Amino acid sequence: MPEALLDPATLGDLLRVASASDYGRWEDQVRRTGGCAGPSRLRGWVLHEDRTTGETLHHYSTEKEPGGRLRLACGNRRASRCPACAWTYAGDTYHLIRAGLAGDARRDIPATVRDHPRVFATLTAPSFGAVHSRPDRGVCRCGTRHGNGDPALGSAIDPATYDYAGAVLFNTPAGQLWRRFSNRLRREVAARAGLTQRELKERARLSYGKVAEFQERGALHFHAVIRLDGPGGPDTPPPTWATVDLLADAIRAAAAHSYTSVSVPAIEDQPARTFRWGTQLDVRPVKAFGDGSEITEQAVASYVAKYATKAAENTGTLDRRIGELSELDRHDVPGHTRRLIEACKLLDPLYPDRRLWAWAHMLGFRGHFSSKSRHYSTTLGALRQERAVYRAAQEREALGLEDTEPDTVLVLADWQYAGHGHTPGESVLAATIARDLQLNRETARDALREQLIDEREC
């Protein structure tokens, strides 16, 4: 951010931090967090001792750190809250999804998984009324040809007739609707293979990884990688009858089946509703890298990773819980999104178990944004543990303990939480550091991509 745009207080704080004698160490801490926008601050100490001799191998205290604090990354997955930590989360999601498509020897997922039937499916919400859109051909129903980025896109053409209550009541049980779909999908696969469900478990297994996305109209839909394996998961070959066409046909049948629905009872002035997936179902086979297809392993993994760090913010809602409706005025929330939030407020007393007002900032949805079946691939926890082990090894090397057996070292520590976040000036500097790190990553990624292209051409 240019200094000319900073208010005097922020600029003064920025100059204070940048001119401090310990700025170099502060910058080093922020770089270690990846440029985190809201780091946790700790105070305390850690001591490494030899278990046998009692010799002090290393001692660290935050007393000599800037402000007497150690800064750790917040780990927030939302890009709207912390782009730096969201980048890490997106990277983990990318590797998780791609491992289930292309295999990963480091995580015991064989490359032969590429030969298994796998598709990229998108299940959308039903219609709750006409909205402004950009159809591939022609003009919007309102008679206008909207440009890209038009703020009217996704909003109701006629707010008076749009079913805002239905929209938020659909978002709330969307996770339950997915479970019903996945259960029905197994039945449909078994039926096409001429098997019972019990027999299917002995011959094949369905695995998936999915992510939720909010459309501009505020309705939720799911993107999912769905794969057919042998009975043991990704390391066992699927039966000969398991094909992409069979899987795609089963997905369409499962999405349209009457079992794949969720009912909401009538209460006071609200009618009974039965929700099903919308008619805009998209199922495409996932191809290998370099075959000319747009739906490649890398493209699908990148697409899922991108939406794993987002929530409903693209509709203009807030990225935190709302205390009062007056907050919407202060944050200039668009009219269509505001009506969805107001619907949550109005319906909350009628459906107390759904906690609509508590989740009004999510337009009623309170499920997991990304999830996977057990045997799809690795887990986010396993990826974080790999990173922790790697960093621990780096730390041992930096401390000169790499030749010392871990079991012979006694670690004593005392840590206390001392707050979170940056001062205004620190926030500006941290954002600059985060941009520098991102630029370096993009440069390295472009160089690697060019190298891979050159190798294929050779």
TrEMBL record:
Q: What Pfam families has UniProt attached to this entry? A: RepSA
Q: What is this protein called?
A: Replication initiation protein
Species name: Streptomyces galbus
Superkingdom of the organism of origin: Bacteria
